[in-house]
Design a protein that fits this description.
The chain has 25 helices and 6 strands. A hairpin with a 5-residue loop joins strand 5 and strand 6. It is 71% helix and 5% strand.
């Protein structure tokens, strides 16, 4: 058995690992969906199973090699979040966002600072306890964009709660960076690490944020001009992904924040060309799921149960309780003070548990600036709590958006098409008998609004189709008009479907066969209805109107 384990697990290459992670993550996500648990939890659980805690297929070295995939995922998340930061939304809700942002971030900071200081003072000196509190406080302020947006996308949410939540998670990482710049400088001087001044600590995040804004704005303007010239979906996707990858690489070279840079690029693009942006963001969202799956599988794989100890377990419990309480109380207070809608006051506090990205980055910085007990403890605690809140956060977001009645409100034409079947769009038009005269056929056309009709034999089996073009050709032969019947002027059956055939498939086949209609038949191949392309368009328009009315 050990021999087999060595053969399988010691020769895992990157392609095999990526394939295993995507396949396993998809399976896990689908399984958890059936259990009415957000799919992101399934991705993370599969990652834990594949990681060092269990099968050890994905180890720390592999995760380091695959880090560019994580960066790509975060870049795509940042870019798509930019679509939500519309200028008209900020004009209307900007004051509300800032109030909630300040109170939820500071609420977490204060609660974590106080409780960590009290808890650490029983295990370490008061000086060490104060340093732990200074460093854990700002890290607790950050909220994960990835887990949040994945749940919102999964449940197609739209509304004031969704808009507020995306605005908060997009901005509170900036707040966390500034807090950390100040507190880490104080902690360093308190411990005698005076190599970096407070001014330098503040200038660093200022450069990071300012650089992200400049690069994001310039790239957003350039992308807007470029994509405004193209309509081809594949080419649009190619240019967009190329732009995201390019600015992520540029951000790494310039040492600025990747997520913020891509988010600002997305924001500028969405506001500069709003009509075009829906097509672009739709194309990116259709491409992104496998990348997101990899990201969350790797999040789970990073969890290592062997790193646990009693002091670290105590820190984990304190951090989770304090951060959760601070986020919830602060978000509720900020929402009430800014007179946010009642649903935001009630349900936003349940949506801010997830953490990753900036929180983990700050813990890594802490482990480098404060090597030894302080740095190692912070790194392990933040990594572990990230895993925990990534598990418990999504179900709470799901509960909140359902209670706020914002689920299945962000429906696109693509979503409508995927849900449609032939029976939804077909019309029970009368069929033309094969021996019916042209005069009778013209009468049928005049009584109905269809441009095409099925021709059936005596057993009601479709044998052809008559179009407006067929009638025009027949009318041009006046001398033979009285002699012609349906069988003489009909075209062959172009395409037939069953009532349960997907409309997505029907549209694809119509495009391939260069026709704009399809016949609908039952299991015995009897004619039961007719579909024209315009019937599909009418049905989609009706459904989209229904969605817009209910939002």
């Amino acid at each position: 058995m050990a021999f087999l384990h060595n053969i399988i697990f010691s020769n895992v290459n990157i392609l095999l690992l990526i394939g295993l992670a995507i396949f396993g993550g998809t399976f896990g996500g689908r399984l958890f969906q059936k259990l009415r648990i957000p799919q992101v939890v399934g991705y993370i659980v599969i990652g834990i199973i594949l990681g060092e805690s269990f099968l050890n297929i994905i180890n720390a070295k592999m995760l380091a090699e695959l880090d560019p995939i994580n960066s790509f995922a975060l870049g795509l998340i940042g870019f798509t979040m930019g679509n939500e930061l519309r200028l008209n939304v900020f004009k209307k809700y900007g004051k509300q966002f800032m109030s909630i942002l300040f109170y939820e971030a500071m609420g977490a900071f204060v609660c974590v600072f106080v409780l960590i200081f009290i808890g650490a003072s029983f295990m370490f000196s008061l000086k060490m306890a104060f340093v732990f509190a200074l460093l854990f406080g700002p890290i607790s302020s950050a909220t994960a964009a990835a887990g949040t947006t994945d749940v919102l996308n999964e449940y197609k949410t739209k509304g004031i709660l969704t808009t507020t939540l995306l605005g908060i998670v997009a901005l509170d990482d900036v707040f966390a960076l500034f807090l950390y710049a100040i507190t880490s400088s104080i902690a360093g001087n308190f411990l005698g690490h005076g190599d970096v001044s407070l001014a330098e600590n503040i200038l660093e995040p200022l450069y990071e944020i300012g650089g992200s804004v400049v690069v994001g704005v310039i790239s957003g303007l350039l992308l807007s001009r470029l994509l405004n010239r193209y309509t081809d979906k594949d080419r649009i996707l190619d240019f967009t992904l190329g732009a995201v990858l390019f600015i992520l690489g540029l951000a790494a070279v310039l040492k600025i924040d990747m997520i913020m840079t891509s988010m600002i690029m997305g924001t500028i693009f969405a506001n500069k060309v709003p009509k075009k942006s829906s097509q672009v963001f739709g194309a990116v969202e259709s491409f992104a799921p496998p990348i997101y799956i990899l990201f969350f599988v790797f999040v789970g794989a990073k969890f290592n149960i062997s790193q646990m100890s009693i002091p670290i377990a105590v820190f984990i419990v304190i951090f989770l309780i304090a951060r959760t309480a601070g986020k919830m109380l602060g978000a509720n207070l900020g929402a009430r003070l800014s007179k946010a809608p009642l649903k935001v006051q009630k349900y936003l506090p349940m949506c801010l548990f997830s953490q990753s990205g900036v929180a983990i980055a700050l813990s890594i910085i802490s482990s480098q600036r404060f090597p030894g007990v302080i740095g190692n403890t912070i790194l392990i605690v933040v990594t572990t709590t990230t895993f925990v809140v990534q598990l418990i956060g999504p179900p709470f977001i799901r509960y909140a958006v359902k209670k706020a009645d914002e689920v299945n409100k962000d429906i696109t034409e693509s979503d409508v098409i995927k849900s449609m079947r032939a029976k939804d769009v077909m019309k029970s038009l009368p069929a033309i008998r094969e021996d019916q005269t042209v005069q009778n056929i013209v009468h049928t056309f005049s009584e109905n609004d269809s441009f095409d009709y099925a021709v059936v034999d005596s057993d009601n089996k479709p044998i052809g189709c008559i179009t407006v073009a067929s009638i025009k050709d027949a009318l041009s032969t006046e001398n033979l008009l009285s002699l012609l019947v349906a069988a003489d002027i009909m075209e062959p059956v172009g395409y037939s479907v069953t009532p349960d055939t997907s409309v997505e498939v029907i549209q694809h086949e119509m495009s391939i066969h260069a026709i704009d209609y399809a016949l609908v038949v039952d299991a015995q191949q009897n004619y039961i209805g007719f579909i024209e392309n315009r019937f599909i368009d009418q049905f989609i328009s009706k459904k989209m109107l229904e969605v817009s009315v209910t939002v």
